[in-house]
């Protein structure tokens, strides 16, 4: 039939996907902003990397943004193993290993304890749970500076003052409020029926924790690891207060190298030392970026 | 305690803070009985189920299962299996791991675990799924596995907490039949919580209709439907809902119901002679109303005749739901799916007062 034919045929004019212009005002604005922001953040990093690969004579020429004419790794070697702080001249390597020794137990213990805390608060509503949680949250808002002196006395009484384990304890305690909150909210977002089903199936407190909850908590554990590693690695205040010069973490040692007032300022060594110190958190971000975003998102949507 | 009682609940009370969720609740459930707890959300039906399962600490009262006082017992020691609305399968375990988790916790020997899983998988026809993770299953398959997890525990009592509410309409109908078949085969005691009255009517031996932490009526589906104990139950059961008219009952040799827009005889309604004059609600179900049948052709079935004006027509295929009014008072009734009717039509409807329900206006209890 002629009538139905004309009905099914396409008319003149717009059809299918709407074409979009590559150089529309919107695109220029979005990509322009992104580009400016990227340059703003990357330029200092670029200057640092470039400077750390230059020799001192080249730096004195004052061409901050120019690439090195002659690449040298001497500043990196010096920063790692020869730079002097006080009477020690074994570079940042000492501080690096101190930091590692502080970092690993602090991160492990704080996450282990916070995971159990969060699980107990989210799933086992024991008497006083609300009060306990409130106290913990208040703890997250009290400035650190208030607690410095009392903790010095506590550590002295415990015989831990000036040692690595005292600092580990301090980091574990100060990580507790935020990590417990993180784990509590994550476990609270897991459907309650799952917990009930496990109870009907006869699993106890630890059975449910290790067999049901912990295997599901991987994204939030990654978030906690990132928070703790960057936080503890970058810590300066506690490191300088609660340890002695032999045991100073990397950040404190970096400060002592960069801020030393004696002799010539070796900008290339300072840049290399700073980059070396920042390397650990940077590596962590690179390798866990995807999981980090997923964990944050999971907490944000359901928490 | 009698031998044929499976679960017995005595003076159960539960408060959340100052809110009374369950008030002085008493309930006996026979061995092998299929009891449905039905009610709108917030009526306490799921709470009651959680109390029976031991997942909530009760404020007062006692719970007996198979004659044992389990009031203080852990959920796993009560001899129950439970199926949840959201399936609640352990996501990191395979189907087999999900089924065996409870048995491993109970220290059942490996050989027996394998046997029980094989038997459960056969009953529910989930053998091909045993090695899969829950994420790789469809909704219906997940709910089967969840039922299997209760089944494999070899318990006397099954608790279902709205198990079909997350499924689409067709799957729900299929699994409903399957649960009924399962009950006929296993003959366990089952308590089933739902807000879906079709599930309640089709599955239950007895239905307990709950409201505000109290059981409004506990009886067989047929009695609940035909002789609702109060106005709430009458309005809750049945879709579309029962029609209600407010009015005055005058007893006598020919008892009359009347209000500003209608007056008719309710002769034949049970024992009207024993009643007194009072203000009442008159209720009649939409499916008990006859349309356009002459009075002499249907005898008792349309003893009362009324003229109505059609407002709205909802064709549903199998039948047509008509919203009409009698001088401003709404009347719903069902007609054949092919009925030729539209808004504005005037029709004559009839019904038999024997099938109606009368409730006192103050107490809302059935007369």
UniProtKB/TrEMBL annotation, chain A:
Q: Which UniProt keywords apply?
A: Membrane, Transmembrane, Transmembrane helix, Transport
Q: Tell me which residues make up the ABC transmembrane type-1 domain.
A: 96-288
Q: What is the membrane topology here?
A: Multi-pass membrane protein
Q: What is this protein called?
A: Glucose/mannose transport system permease protein
Q: Which SUPFAM superfamilies match?
A: MetI-like (SSF161098)
Q: Which family does it belong to?
A: Belongs to the binding-protein-dependent transport system permease family.
Please give the superkingdom of this protein's source: Bacteria
PROSITE patterns per record: ABC_TM1
Pfam families noted in UniProt:
BPD_transp_1
InterPro entries in UniProt: MetI-like, MetI-like_sf
What stretches pass through the bilayer?
28-49, 102-122, 131-155, 161-183, 204-227, 269-287
Which Gene Ontology terms of cellular component type are present?
plasma membrane
Q: What is its main location?
A: membrane
Which cellular compartments is it found in?
A: Cell membrane
GO terms (BP aspect):
transmembrane transport
UniProtKB/TrEMBL annotation, chain B:
Question: In terms of domain of life, where is this protein from?
Answer: Bacteria
Entry keyword set: ATP-binding, Nucleotide-binding, Transport
The record's annotation in SUPFAM superfamilies points to:
MOP-like, P-loop containing nucleoside triphosphate hydrolases
UniProt cross-references to InterPro entries, sorted A to Z? AAA+_ATPase, ABC_transporter-like_ATP-bd, ABC_transporter-like_CS, ABC_transpr_MalK-like, ABC_transpr_MalK/UgpC-like, Mo/tungstate-bd_C_term_dom, NA-bd_OB-fold, OB_MalK-like
The ABC transporter domain extends over: 7-237
The GO cellular component terms are: ATP-binding cassette (ABC) transporter complex, substrate-binding subunit-containing
One molecular function GO term is: ATP hydrolysis activity
From the UniProt annotation, give the residues forming the signal peptide: none
Q: Which GO terms describe its biological process?
A: carbohydrate transport
* Protein name, per record: Carbohydrate ABC transporter ATP-binding protein, CUT1 family
The record lists the organism as: Thiothrix eikelboomii
């Amino acid at each position: 039939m002629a009538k139905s034919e004309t009905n099914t045929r396409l008319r003149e004019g717009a059809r299918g996907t709407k074409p979009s212009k590559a150089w529309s005002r919107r695109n220029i604005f979005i990509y322009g902003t992104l580009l400016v922001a990227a340059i703003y953040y990357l330029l200092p990093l670029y200057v640092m990397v470039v400077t750390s690969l230059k020799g001192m004579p080249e730096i004195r020429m004052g061409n901050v943004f120019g690439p090195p004419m002659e690449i040298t790794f001497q500043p990196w070697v010096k920063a790692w193993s020869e730079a002097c702080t006080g009477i020690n001249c074994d570079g940042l390597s000492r501080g690096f290993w101190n930091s590692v020794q502080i970092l690993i137990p602090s991160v492990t213990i704080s996450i282990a304890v916070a995971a159990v805390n969060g699980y107990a608060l989210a799933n086992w509503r024991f008497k006083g749970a609300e009060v306990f949680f409130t106290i913990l949250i208040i703890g997250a808002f009290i400035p650190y500076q208030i607690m410095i002196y009392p903790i010095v006395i506590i550590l002295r009484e415990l015989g831990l003052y000036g040692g690595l384990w005292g600092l580990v304890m301090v980091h574990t305690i100060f990580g507790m409020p935020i990590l417990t909150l993180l784990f509590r909210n994550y476990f609270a977002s897991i459907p309650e029926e799952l917990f009930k089903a496990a109870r009907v199936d006869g699993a106890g407190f630890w059975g449910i924790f290790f067999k049901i909850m912990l295997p599901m908590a991987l994204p939030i554990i990654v978030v906690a690891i990132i928070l703790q590693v960057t936080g503890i690695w970058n810590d300066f205040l506690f490191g300088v207060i609660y340890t002695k010069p032999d045991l100073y973490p990397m950040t404190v040692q970096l400060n002592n190298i960069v801020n030393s007032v004696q002799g010539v300022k070796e900008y290339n060594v300072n840049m290399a030392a700073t980059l070396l110190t920042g390397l650990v958190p940077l590596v962590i971000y690179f390798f866990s970026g995807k999981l980090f975003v997923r964990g944050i998102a999971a907490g944000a949507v359901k928490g | 305690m009698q031998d044929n009682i499976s679960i017995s609940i005595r003076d159960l009370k539960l408060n959340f803070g100052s809110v009374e969720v369950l008030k002085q609740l008493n309930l006996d459930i026979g061995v092998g009985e299929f009891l449905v707890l039905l009610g709108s959300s917030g009526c306490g039906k799921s709470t009651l189920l959680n109390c029976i399962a031991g997942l909530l600490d009760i404020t007062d009262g006692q719970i007996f299962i198979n004659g044992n006082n389990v009031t203080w017992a852990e959920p796993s020691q009560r001899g129950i299996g439970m199926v949840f609305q959201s399936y609640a399968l352990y996501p990191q375990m395979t189907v087999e791991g999900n089924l065996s988790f409870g048995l491993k916790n109970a220290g059942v020997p490996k050989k027996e675990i394998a046997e029980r899983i094989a038997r459960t998988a056969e009953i529910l026809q989930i053998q091909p799924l045993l090695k899969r993770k829950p994420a790789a299953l469809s909704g219906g398959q997940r709910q089967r596995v969840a039922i299997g997890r209760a089944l494999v525990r070899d318990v006397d009592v099954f608790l279902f907490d709205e198990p079909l509410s997350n499924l689409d309409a067709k799957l729900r109908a299929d699994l409903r039949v399957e649960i009924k078949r399962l009950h006929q085969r296993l003959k366990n005691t089952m308590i089933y919580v739902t807000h879906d009255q079709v599930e309640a009517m089709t599955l239950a031996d007895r239905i307990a209709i709950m409201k505000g932490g109290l059981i409004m009526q506990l009886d067989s589906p047929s009695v609940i439907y035909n002789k609702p104990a109060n106005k709430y139950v009458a309005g809750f059961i049945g879709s579309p809902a029962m029609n209600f008219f407010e009015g005055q009952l005058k007893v006598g040799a020919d008892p009359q119901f009347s209000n500003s827009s209608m007056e008719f005889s309710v002769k034949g309604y049970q024992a009207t002679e024993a009643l007194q004059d009072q203000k009442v609600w008159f209720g009649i179900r939409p499916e008990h109303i006859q349309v356009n049948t002459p009075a002499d052709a249907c005898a008792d079935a349309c003893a009362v005749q009324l003229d109505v004006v059609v407002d709205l027509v909802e064709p549903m295929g199998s039948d047509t739901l008509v919203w009409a009014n009698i001088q401003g008072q709404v009347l719903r009734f069902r007609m054949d799916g092919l009925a030729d009717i539209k808004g504005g039509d005037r029709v004559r409807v009839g019904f038999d007062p024997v099938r109606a329900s009368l409730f006192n206006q103050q107490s809302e209890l059935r007369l």
